[in-house]
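Morning run. Coffee first, then this:
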Amino acid sequence: MPSKIEDYAIIGDTKTVALVDLTGSIDWWCAPRIDSGAAFAALLGDASNGRWLIAPKDQVTKVSRHYEPETLVLETVFETASGSVSVCDFMPPGAGHSMIHRIVEGRAGTVEMQMELIVRYEYGAVTPWATATGDGLVLVAARDGLRLHSPVRLVGQDNTTVASFSVSGTVRRTFSLTWFPSVRDAPLPLDSLAARNRTRRYWHDWVGRCTYKGGWRDPVVRSLITLKALTYMPSGAICAAATTSLPETIGGSRNWDYRYSWLRDATFTLDALLLSGYTDEAAAWVAWLRRAVAGNPGEMQIMYGVDGQRRLQEFELDHLGGYEGSKPVRIGNKAATQLQLDVYGEVMDSAVTDRHSAIPGESHMSPDLMMAVLDHLERIWRQPDNGIWEVRGPRRHFTHSKVMAWVAFDRAVTLAADGVLAKERLGHWQQVADDIHAEVCQKGFDAELNSFTQYYGSKLLDASLLMVAPVGFLPADDPRVVGTVDAIQKGLVTDGFVRRYQTGTDDDVDGLKGTEGVFLMTSFWLADNLALLGRHDESKEMFERLCALCNDVGLLSEEYDPKAHRLLGNFPQAFSHVALINTAANLSMAEHGPSVMRGRRYGPHTVGASGQADQPRSAATGALDPSAANHPELVS
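And here it is:
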C-alpha cells in the first residue's frame, strides 16, 4: 500500500517530477516528461507496479527529512538501533536526460541497507529487458530506457533488482537512474556529488532572483520552488499537479489526471510569479499560453498538454488498484472538450496582466487573437456551460462563468483604452459588458439568501463566487458581496475550511457520486475576501491555519479531509501553492497585494449614474470599482 499523500516529498528537474515517501521509496516517476507513462506507479497500486526503495534493513526508530535550504535537494535521515544514515535525493535541472540521483551517507554507527528497484513502464504494466553493464543495469522496453548506476553488487529476483550493503560514518554510496530513448545508446552515468553541487547552485541562483518582500517568506519561497518544479521548462507550461488519480475522498471515484496546464490558472499564476520577480518564467508562461490558444477561438480548449497538445483523451487503467483502492485510475482528461466560459475571461485578464508588467513585448498575446476570442465569446456567452469545476452533470448557466465572461469584455475595454485593441470597438465592448453585468445581478443573485448562487435560479452556493470582488465585478464592500461571503461561511465552511460547492443535492450538479474534501484554493480565496473586507484578524487566522496543513517539507495537495486530518487529491497542487503566495502577499504587502493590484488594472473609474450612490464605478461597464485607491480602508 502506498504511503499517505502527506508523507511524500518531491524532487524534479523542471521537466518531470518524482515522489519520495518517508520510507525511502520513490513511488511515482513519469519520464521523460511529467505527463509521460510512469516507470514507477506504486503510488496507484503496490510495489509490483514499480518503485525504487533505498532504506535500512532493520527497524527504523526515527525518520526525519528536509529540503536543503532554498533548494529541491531532499535529505532523509533514518535512525536505527545500530546507527543513522542519510539518503539524499535530487534531480539535476538542465542535465539533458532526466535522471534521479540518490546519495547514501553514514551518519553514526553502522547501518545495514537494502535497495529494491522495480521498473514497470506504462504505469506499472510493462516489464523491461534488463542487461548488466558492469556498474549497473540497462532496462529497456519499447521507446523507454533507463540506465542504473550502482556501486554495489546487484541481484535479480523475480524481475526485481535487489542489493544489500552497509554504510558507516566513513562510507558513502551513490546511485543514479537516467532515462534515455531506447533506440539510442545508454548514457554514461554522471558523478553524483558533482551533480548535487550543480543542483544546489541552480536552485540557489533561482531563489536568489526572488524579489518577494512580503511576510511568510519561507512558505512563499517553498511554494515558488514547487511551482518551478511543476514547470515544463522546454515550453514554459506549468502543470496543475505532478500526479493523476489521487482521490478527492479515499475510496471514491473522483480521481482525475492533473498533469496538464489549465488556462484558468493564467492570471493567478502570473500574479504569483510577477510579484516575486520571476519575469522570465512569467514570459515563458504567457508565450506558452499564446501558442496553445492559437487558431480558431471556437476550438480553444480549457486545458492543454505541456507542449500544447490538444488531444487529451481520457481512459482508465484497469490493472492498477488505485490509491488505497480509489478507482478508477484515469489517464487523460475529457474535461478538455468541455465548454467553460470562464477561461475566456482568464485569457483576457492575463493579457492585461502581461501588458502592465515587465514581461518582454514579444511575449504579449497578439491583438488579432484577442479580437477573435472576443468575437467568439460574444456569440456564445449566453449558452450554459460546464463551469469552473468541470462538472459532468448537465450544463448550467453558472454565475461564475458569466462573471468571467464580463471580465473578458471589461478587460477588452481597458486594452482598447490603452491603445492595444481597436478603440472604435470600445463602446461596443462596454455595452456587452453592461449587458452581462445586468443579467448576472438580476439572475445570479438570490435576495432571499442574500447571496449570489451557483447558477441562475438555484438556491445552491459555490465557492467560485468568492471571485466576484477580486476580479472587479463588484467591490468587496458591496452588500451583495458581503452577503455572499457570509452565506459561504455559513453554508460551505467545514471545520474552518471551504468546500467548493454542495455535493449530493437533488440538483445532481456535478453528475458524480460521493463527496469530496475541503478545497484548499477556495479556502485561500475566503481569506482574501476577508482581507478585502477589512477583517484582517480573521483572514490571517485562516491563512495560518491553511499553512499549517503543509506537510513536513512545505507541500500542499488539492484538498484536505478535516475529519481524518489527511491531504487529498493530486499532489503537489500548483493552484494551492499559487493561492498561498497570493494570499500571503494580500495580507502582508498592503497596496501591492494581487487583489488590490488586480483592481487597479481595470482602467479609468468614475461615479456611475445608477446603483449605490457615490460608489466608484468603471467608466467602461458601470461595475463598482474594487480599487483600494478608492477604498483605502480595505488594506489598512
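The mean pLDDT is 90. Good start to the day.
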